[in-house]
Automatic annotation (TrEMBL):
InterPro entries: Cell_Adh-Cytoskel_Orgn, Ig-like_dom, Ig-like_dom_sf, Ig-like_fold, Ig_sub, Ig_sub2, Ig_V-set. One of its GO terms (cellular component) is neuronal cell body. It comes from the Eukaryota. The keyword Signal applies. Residues 2-96, 102-196, 202-295, 301-395 form the Ig-like domain. SMART domains: IG (SM00409), IGc2 (SM00408), IGv (SM00406). This is Ig-like domain-containing protein. It comes from Mytilus galloprovincialis (Mediterranean mussel). Keywords: Disulfide bond, Signal. The lineage of its organism: Eukaryota, Metazoa, Spiralia, Lophotrochozoa, Mollusca. One of its GO terms (biological process) is homophilic cell adhesion via plasma membrane adhesion molecules. It holds the Pfam family Ig_3. GO terms for molecular function: axon guidance receptor activity.
Length: 398
């Protein structure tokens, strides 16, 4: 029978490489066939030479060549040869296939990032044989999604740079992540790491809920903003009759900016009275303050005569008394005379008339004559409008 010899009792090879298990055959008469068997857990399997990974195992070339070794190739091998007398076999030789699925590690169990910022989820691995791919998975509410780095939001996740870079993080990125690395043996998986995305809509505060300002004066309605991520805009709205309109900056309004969110109103008018709300917006959304009520005080002047009627002697001097109460302050005082259906303004350029001013609203008439008789009205104006007294008749005697 043939004498069959293996040249080594053991071999070792990395997964994916090729190995030749050496075998020699000495036979008279010549061998007619050569076969190999592999033993795994004492179970013999004939090597199927029709598989593309095997070559050799022939009379002319009895050694067994295994290409692209895999873990399942590990085991004890026997070389057999047959001639017309019988069959001979070698001693066992052991093939040790070295390699395993990658060992994958994420160094942190939790990462935090502000909304709008970028974050790198670190991943390292050791792999023999070398890895063929790296990918990441995220889990939200038991829903697993494979991260596609084809999306511009993501970078990394390659065999050279296995860490995952998330650009411009938002609330949808908050999830559990695992790093996976694949080689020819299989896929290794890291432990889970959680990404906590920090930030919220701005917190907008109006510390004072009500303001009162006189017509014509200025008032600042205070607004403070705390925001992470940083707010990018601030604006105010005016509410009247259930309808909201944006307050336009410029003219009598100023402020309402990122650096100065409070709203300043100059030269307040009665039409400015109402409810105001401060808003601030960041990349997450828009926050708003509680309502601020602005009361604008002031009215037309209250004007009164000191007497219901006046009587003076021809040629004498008389003062038609007038008192004025006004908020905001009076800007002008003048008098009118009513004669029948004709109303005329008293001409203070006439030297017979004095007073009729903000400081002295009463009207003094010197050298009375019959033409001075008639009904007189005292009028006072402020920024709100004009108030007037009732008519006071003047009778000239003589």
């Amino acid at each position: 029978v043939p004498v069959v010899t293996v040249l080594s009792t053991s071999y070792s090879i990395n997964v994916g490489n090729s190995i030749t298990l050496q075998c020699t055959v000495s036979a008279t008469p010549s061998a007619t066939s050569v076969t190999w068997q592999r033993f795994t857990n004492n179970v013999a399997t004939n090597i199927d030479m029709s598989s593309g990974r095997y070559s050799g195992s022939s009379v002319g070339s009895p050694s067994l060549v295994i290409s692209n070794t895999v873990i399942s190739d590990e085991g004890f091998y026997i070389c057999k040869a047959t001639n017309s007398v019988g069959s001979g076999q070698s001693q066992q030789t052991f093939l040790d296939v070295i390699g395993s699925i990658p060992t994958v590690t994420v160094p942190q169990s939790t990462y935090t990032v502000n909304r709008g910022s970028s974050v790198t989820l670190q991943c390292t691995y050791t792999s023999n044989p070398a890895p063929t791919s790296v990918f990441w998975e995220r889990t939200v509410a038991n829903q697993v999604t494979i991260i596609s780095t084809a999306i511009s939001k993501y970078d990394g996740s390659t065999t050279q740079s296995p860490s995952l870079i998330i650009n411009t993080a938002d609330e949808s990125d908050e999830a559990n992540y695992v790093c996976k690395v694949t080689n020819s043996v299989g896929t290794g998986i890291s432990s889970s790491t959680f990404l906590d995305v920090l930030g919220n809509i701005p917190v907008v505060t109006a510390p004072t809920s009500a303001y009162t300002v006189n017509v014509g004066d200025s008032v600042t309605m205070t607004c403070t903003v705390t925001a992470n991520p940083q707010h990018t805009t601030v604006y105010w709205q005016y509410i009247s009759g259930g309808s909201s309109t944006n307050v336009n900056m410029g003219g009598r309004f100023s402020g309402s900016s990122v650096s100065s969110p409070s709203l300043t109103l100059s030269n307040a008018q009665l039409s400015d009275q109402g409810t105001y709300v401060c808003y601030a917006t960041n990349s997450v959304g828009t926050g708003q303050s509680t309502q601020v009520v602005l009361a604008v005080t002031g009215s037309v002047p209250s004007v009164s005569l000191t007497q219901t009627s006046f009587t003076g002697n021809y040629g004498d001097t008389i003062t038609l008394g007038c008192t004025v109460s006004a908020n905001p302050g009076v800007t002008s005082v003048y008098w009118q005379k009513v004669s029948g259906s004709v109303t005329s303004t008293v001409d203070m350029s006439n030297s017979r008339y004095t007073g009729s001013s903000v400081s002295t609203p009463s009207l003094t008439i010197t050298n009375l004559n019959s033409n001075d008789g008639g009904n007189y009205i005292c009028l006072a104006a402020n920024s709100v409008g004009t108030g007037q007294s009732v008519q006071g008749p003047l009778t000239v005697v003589g």
